[in-house]
Design brief:
Crp/Fnr family transcriptional regulator (chains A, B); DNA-binding; Arc Repressor Mutant, subunit A; Jelly Rolls; HTH_CRP (chains A, B); homodimer
DNA sequence: TAATTTTTTTGACCTAAGTCAATTCTTTTT
DNA sequence: AAAAAGAATTGACTTAGGTCAAAAAAATTA
């Protein structure tokens, strides 16, 4: 993919329209990055200054503790920016990011972004919007994790998917084991919970396909 | 407290210096708010457009579920902004905020802030910085909650306090029951955990005073 | 398509932390 | 200082979900 095309997609998606001046300003501070499934964009704690915009593919953002246990923070889908806190913390990545599918991304050098922010207030506003959305998402994760049990967390998750797709039949976007960890559980507990929902007639399931039977 | 003084404190703390032009721009979009202990700034889900900067006092940000169970997101200390996602989501507050002590705050009308952001890029940069810090804080909360047990979460918490105060003797800033909930536990479990840390010779405790004996 | 690897499911067992109730200790109010 | 209210602790019991191991199913690769 050519850089200018990537920048245009970014402009369109992130700013809601092409701004030729902004596109040309971005030429010098961006690069197109491709990663194959399993490859890593950056590792938690690593120094860096690049913020990314995912054009195609799927990415897992996670943290690991000393014993290698994972805490999955988010699955990045195409059209999203990630590592956006590097705009401020020109410093260390707070999480690790791995490609779950082959990916194309636009990397943006945050060291040179201050000029962009000051010249293009629309860019600043959109960035503030993106950061706010991420905060809202994280607050919601925290609330779910502390106030709800696993089946409720899962049902909240698929209800959101169902609303987005306007259908009560959804396909899990990642493998069950990873979804379990996103929801703060083990694959074993997740599997048992799914079985219970099936037995109780709340969902139908075939592989990653889930049909919501009752809206609780 | 006079509004202009509050604005000056905000400017100094948030922007790292007084900017007379910005101060006068803020005159028309701000107000000084005082709340007594126990009073509420805003309730989760409530419509509003005010972002707050806490000048003095202490605030609890939390969510409640249907059964009245609390998930505490953060304790706001003086010098911090809160409800900062309202800059974008001119919309609904994501959490409830209650004064744990008598408070003075500066409220900023986010509807009229876009002009400020576009004219003062330093303001935009600082705001992006504050949002990024909040994201980092929340990611850390999530990681702790999913990867660590209660005693580890507590020790991480007081280690941070100890580093800030550069002392291994700290005073818990809130009552133990609230701290328990911030750490995703019940007051009972928290109390038992503290007893265990004391019995194991890891901390000394007298009321809210905690002394870290071993740095694990 | 067979072989290999990865993912998911199931079983048996365990444990951290929740629940509910009763005390004790502390703070606030009268 | 006494009374009342709120916070913290302790006890007894329960449970959601963790752990480890093995089997079954699905997806990759040869």
């Amino acid at each position: 993919m050519k850089k200018i095309d990537a920048i245009r997609i970014f402009c369109n998606t992130f700013l809601g329209g092409i701004d030729e001046e902004l596109c040309s300003m971005m030429e010098t501070v961006t690069a197109v990055i491709t990663k194959k499934k399993g490859e890593i964009f950056f590792i938690e704690g690593e120094h860096g200054s690049n913020v990314f915009f995912l054009i195609s593919g799927l990415i897992k953002l996670y943290k690991t503790n000393d014993e290698g246990k994972e805490a999955i923070i988010h699955f990045v889908k195409s059209g999203e920016i990630f590592a956006e806190i590097l705009f401020f913390l020109q410093n260390r990545y707070p999480v690790t990011s791995v490609a779950l599918e082959d990916c194309i991304a636009l990397s943006i050098d945050s060291k040179k972004i201050e000029e962009l922010i000051s010249k293009k207030s629309k860019f600043a506003m959109k960035l503030i919007g993106a950061l706010s959305k991420r905060i809202k998402y994280l607050i919601n994760m925290l609330e779910n994790l502390t106030l709800s049990d696993l089946s409720t967390r899962f049902l909240n998750y698929i209800k959101t998917l169902a609303e987005q797709k306007k259908s009560d039949e959804i396909v899990l976007p990642v493998k069950k084991g990873d979804l379990a960890i996103l929801l703060g559980a083990t694959p074993e507990a997740f599997s048992r919970m799914l079985k219970k929902l099936k037995d109780d007639g709340i969902i139908e399931m075939e592989g990653r396909k889930i049909k919501l039977l009752k809206m609780i």
